[in-house]
Specification:
Elements (H helix, E strand, L loop, with lengths): L2 H5 L1 H16 L1 E2 L9 H7 L10 E2 L2 E2 L5 H18 L3 E3 L5 H12 L5 E5 L15 H5 L1 E5 L10 H11 L3 E4 L10 H10 L3 E5 L4 H5 L12 E5 L10 E5 L4 H12 L5 H13 L3 H23 L3 E2 L8 E5 L7 H10 L2 E2 L1 E3 L13 E5 L1 H5 L4 H16 L4 H17 L7
Parallel strand pairs: 1-13, 5-6, 5-7, 7-8, 8-9
Antiparallel strand pairs: 2-3, 4-10, 9-10, 11-12, 12-15, 14-15
Bound molecules: D-serine.
Length: about 425
């Protein structure tokens, strides 16, 4: 009997239910992944006890000998994996990492140029609902409405007219590669600092399958739980000259004590990410996203930017007479889990969400390949076209379950 069954059977049951839900549904949420079991082991370990403030060798509490070694391991492995001059491994999340970068080198009210949310940007890139927009003066660039790709000339024009102190690249829902070299040149033209938020792409970059922003940026942030597969938390990479400012901005600037269990999980995933098993999951993730995009396009769906270069497929459902939310709800009923998402067409209609976002990280970690992706697209299409048909939806749910049972969540890397 587990300790939790004894202390709180109700909670124990809820956790078992969540494990069953994960086992029996297809996870297409681009911001999630199935972590290796060793990561889960670390996250629930004795490492939760220690309070740490400061950095290895410079702590405000005694008893940090072991945790200093753990944090140093994460630092050394992370720098080496991403070829970074400096790293801070303490941020609790991607938003915390971005806040720390802004506050390390900017003053309140400074101008920042970043991608708009409907174009794929993130809340912490100056969305009205985020504290970032209250502290800094954001201007947002949008995608080219025809190609649905980043319009680098628009970024250049904005940069020269707004004269931002910082330019932000990176997105939560942009399925294409970003030309970091081009944006870095624009940043240099106007003497702006350059931050890339590669939260979604970190695993693909770590596996060296898509270009890394690190050589071109002053700062790069990411989260560890998406394609990176490493449990919760965020990371900041930077040029060495910003190291001290970044460290002070993280602690004590934006955070208190950091989570030692997450520092250890980061150290582990940075080790595993250099190994063949991790790289092959990332390769499959890319292939699977392309297979899904192709299969949806064959069925006449509007795939934003007509394809994908990463783990995401963004579908604009405007022409399908169904909202993103209705599609999300209907797919959840048959066991296909994803999220509604704003698409470039929603830009002029605040509150409108006409799309859904698919990510292939978690299904690839389960071992599924292109054949299964085409099968999933068929299941999704039939579901969306037969929303009121209880019998058909119940048959699809059965098929989803069978697929899940054939690819159990296992130690994938
Ligand atoms: N940034 C959010 C997303 O992409 O869904 C959460 O990580």
């Amino acid at each position: 009997m587990s300790y939790l069954s004894k202390d709180d059977p109700e909670l124990k049951n809820l956790i078992s239910d969540e494990a069953n839900r994960l086992d029996s549904t297809l996870n297409l949420i681009a911001a999630e992944n199935h972590s290796p079991f060793s990561i889960l082991e670390i996250m629930g370990s004795v490492l939760n006890t220690k309070t740490i403030e400061g950095y290895p060798g410079k702590r405000f509490h005694a008893g940090c000998t072991n945790v200093d070694c753990i944090e140093s391991l994460a630092i050394d492995r992370g720098k080496s994996l991403f070829g970074a001059e400096y790293i801070n491994v303490q941020p609790h999340s991607g938003t915390s990492a971005n806040l720390a970068v802004y506050f390390s080198v900017l003053n309140i009210g400074d101008r920042i140029l970043a991608m708009s949310l409907p174009s794929g940007g993130h809340l912490s890139h100056g969305h009205l609902a985020s504290i970032t927009s209250k502290c800094f003066d954001f201007t947002h660039y949008k995608l080219d409405p025809k190609t649905e790709l980043i319009d680098y000339e628009q970024i250049r024009n904005f940069a020269h007219s707004v004269k931002p102190k910082m330019i932000v690249a990176g997105a939560s829902s942009y399925p294409r590669l970003i030309d970091y070299k081009k944006i870095s040149k624009i940043a240099k033209e106007v003497s702006a600092l350059f931050l890339t938020d590669m939260a979604h792409l970190a695993g693909l970059v770590a596996a060296k399958l898509i270009p890394s922003p690190v050589p071109y940026c002053d700062f790069v942030t990411f989260t560890c739980y998406k394609t990176m597969m490493g449990g919760r938390g965020g990371i900041i990479l930077s040029k060495k000259k910003y190291g001290k400012k970044i460290d002070s901005a993280v602690f004590p600037g934006c955070q208190g004590t950091s989570a030692v269990n997450l520092l250890a999980a980061k150290a582990l995933i940075f080790k595993l990410a250099a190994e063949e098993k991790f790289i092959s999951v990332q390769k499959m993730t890319l292939k699977n996203a392309k297979a899904m995009a192709q299969a949806f396009m064959k069925k006449g769906y509007h795939i934003v930017s007509k394809g994908t270069d990463n783990h995401q497929v963004l579908i604009d459902l405007s022409s399908k007479n169904i909202s993103g939310k209705a599609a999300e709800n209907c797919l959840e009923k048959v066991g296909i889990i994803l999220n509604r998402n704003v698409v470039p067409n929603d830009a002029d209609n605040p509150g409108k969400i006409s799309g859904i976002r698919i990510g292939t990280g978690a299904v690839s970690a389960r071992g599924m390949g292109e054949l299964q992706m085409r099968q999933i697209v068929d299941l999704m299409d039939t579901t969306l076209s037969n929303r009121g048909e209880k019998r058909i939806l119940s048959e699809i749910k059965e098929e989803v379950l069978k697929l899940c049972q054939s690819f159990p969540i296992k130690k994938s890397i």
